[in-house]
Amino acid sequence: MRTFYSFTVILGLSFFVSSFATIENDNLKYKKTSNTISFKNSDNDDVKENISNDFFKRYSDLKKYKSEVMSLYKNRTLGTIWYDEDEINEFGSILYQKAKKTNDLVIPYQKEIDQLFDSSSDANFSRTDADMLLSSLYVVYTKKNNADKKKIAYDAMLKDFLNYSTIEEATAKVEDDGNLYDQYYKLQDVLKKYKKLERSSKWKPIVTEVPYKELRPDAVSSTIAQVRTRLYLLGDLKQDSKSDFYDRELMDAVMKYKVRNGFKPNYILAEEHIKEMNIPVSDKVKTLMLNMERIRAISPQLVNNDEFVMVNVPSYELIYVKNGKVVLTSSVFVGSPLTKTTIFNGEIDRIVFSPYWTVPQSIVDNELKLKIAADKNYLAEHNMEVVNGQVRQKPGPGNSLGLVKFMFPNPDDIYMHDTPSKTLFDFEKRTFSHGCINVKMAKELAAAMLQDYPEWTQEKIDKAMAGKVENSFKLSKKVPIYICYFTSLVNENGEVGFFPDVYEKDAELNPEKTLTAN
């Protein structure tokens, strides 16, 4: 079970979705929306010049920054800078927050840029316009803060945000204006320890026997001695006896290591655990820095609530905070890399008991049609029916949404819900859904959220969940929900956990992986 510790850090990343029709020819691949165009992977300088001329003609106040803006795209084969598929990436959100917090910074076309981060806005920008507006914002921001007048370039831009060379630089760049949260400083303290470990010669790769065999208590192996040293360096062991025997002391340390890093809580040392221990300490340092940046991008007003639900995708875990205290923690599973769960914030306004599941048309087309064609009784056997041309599953214990769902309006139409597939929570990597969040303790969460509603007794809740008719209850007080992406967190005991970069968002923000060769 992954452990998602209590903390007061909330990430509110807005997103912007655009749709395009694709036009291709021999030298150019771009997408067209209205009278604006978006290029991708174009090596044609004339095309780029035409696109840039069109943009700066319509956004004439930015024309004086044209050469510097276009220098950011030079020699790049990744297309847009500020987008990850259909949403603004974290890098773009960090830029926006930094610019907004810069005193006396005049932002040309600020209204348009604000609309990019406002999910309720009906403004429609092409991908090119949106990306170049953010690139222009970066140039304006850099000119305001670039006292050394360094050349504006893509690699320098990444280092400016994310690649502090020393912990002293990272510390110096933070001014405590009352809007930084405890988790930031917890990560900072851990970062100091990992930087010190990085400078030492103590971190050495664990060399295993080939082929590798899982190690269990009472095993004797040279790998055991190396694991012992590693866990001592990480703080899971108080002393390093150098013993190659898997004893009680090591068992406790392995359990501590696994719990804080979200692995199954057992004593087995599989090959995947050794691989995680062998991640270079320099990579751990970068992960800590990236998550410190994520926290700095947080909007302060988002945490001024004594009740909220928080889901951290990389740790596959949900917490429910009420009256400022964590009252429930639950495992979740989230969207697959192809159908990612969106990172954003919203408000839960309804709890729906014994829900119908209206099957998305994409699932009907890609999955159900073949099954129905092969078995004429498929719908009846799965408690499904066709209503107004749509396939839906009736309420019941076998319903894909389980016994209850939690609704929070959002453009992607995702929500949280129960699930009959409880065995999926036994997996460590839980990316199974089409984007919605499946909650292991959904029944308990509903009961906890309804404690302030006297009419909703436990008996009434149980009855509503066992119904054959959908029962929707509108909350008089909406509950904020924050869907976050933190790949490292520190618990209240100062123990750090590192979680898998399931959607490769860390990789996008890692300068060494993001820079493009000339």
TrEMBL record:
<feature type="signal peptide">
    <location>
        <begin position="1"/>
        <end position="21"/>
    </location>
</feature>
<dbReference type="InterPro" id="IPR038063">
    <property type="entry name" value="Transpep_catalytic_dom"/>
</dbReference>
<keyword id="KW-0732">Signal</keyword>
<keyword id="KW-0133">Cell shape</keyword>
<protein>
    <submittedName>
        <fullName>L,D-transpeptidase family protein</fullName>
    </submittedName>
</protein>
<comment type="similarity">
    <text>Belongs to the YkuD family.</text>
</comment>
<keyword id="KW-0573">Peptidoglycan synthesis</keyword>
<keyword id="KW-0961">Cell wall biogenesis/degradation</keyword>
<feature type="active site" description="Nucleophile">
    <location>
        <position position="436"/>
    </location>
</feature>
<dbReference type="Pfam" id="PF03734">
    <property type="entry name" value="YkuD"/>
</dbReference>
<feature type="active site" description="Proton donor/acceptor">
    <location>
        <position position="417"/>
    </location>
</feature>
<feature type="domain" description="L,D-TPase catalytic">
    <location>
        <begin position="307"/>
        <end position="462"/>
    </location>
</feature>
<comment type="pathway">
    <text>Cell wall biogenesis; peptidoglycan biosynthesis.</text>
</comment>
<dbReference type="InterPro" id="IPR052905">
    <property type="entry name" value="LD-transpeptidase_YkuD-like"/>
</dbReference>
<keyword id="KW-0808">Transferase</keyword>
<dbReference type="InterPro" id="IPR005490">
    <property type="entry name" value="LD_TPept_cat_dom"/>
</dbReference>
